[in-house]
Design a protein that fits this description.
52 residues; mainly beta; two-stranded antiparallel ribbon; globular
């Protein structure tokens, strides 16, 4: 909730198709996170992730 960047999970180009990203939640401390998907430097989707 402090607005800090915690971790960039992926930063590369992908082929045009259905893509999926998975990651190990254990790299994050318990808390509430805002996950943002960006396309060409613009946010296109955001979601809330809660880790307990």
């Amino acid at each position: 909730m402090q607005g800090k960047l915690i971790k960039i999970l992926f930063d590369d180009a992908l082929k045009v198709s259905m893509n999926r990203l998975s990651f190990n939640r254990n790299i994050l401390q318990p808390g509430t996170y805002f996950v943002r998907l960006k396309l060409y430097q613009q946010a296109v989707q955001s979601t809330i992730l809660q880790i307990q």
